[in-house]
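BUG: 3D viewer hangs when loading the predicted structure for this chain

Environment: internal workstation, default settings.
Expected: structure renders.
Actual: progress bar stalls at 90%.

Input used:
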Amino acid sequence: MATPLKRIRGLGAAHHGTETFWRQRLTAVANVPLLIFLIWFVVSHVGASYDKVRECLANPIVAVLMLALIWSAAIHMRIGLREIIEDYVHTKMCKTVSLMAVTFFAALVGLASTLAILKISFGS
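Structure tokens produced before the viewer hung:
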């Protein structure tokens, strides 16, 4: 017979406790100002030349904010998709393949975006 304390220590069915919940909320909160910055950046550069936009993206502060947005959004996306897959995909093999695909996709998006920003920032 399990006591309420024993059930709490077990961290629930997924054995992750509230860690994923809080990580999802943290990335959501981080995405709000970062997305506002992105919208402001895009709107303020409507009609600007490619060279002007590239020059602005090369600014270290802008580059860091863009990188933060990309990685925060990729992590947020991965957590959300992972939760959906764990809840609704019941075939073990399909679940494993789907979780791997989501993880690789999020990493690929983050890496490709990072390389693009670095190329713009440091030019070639």
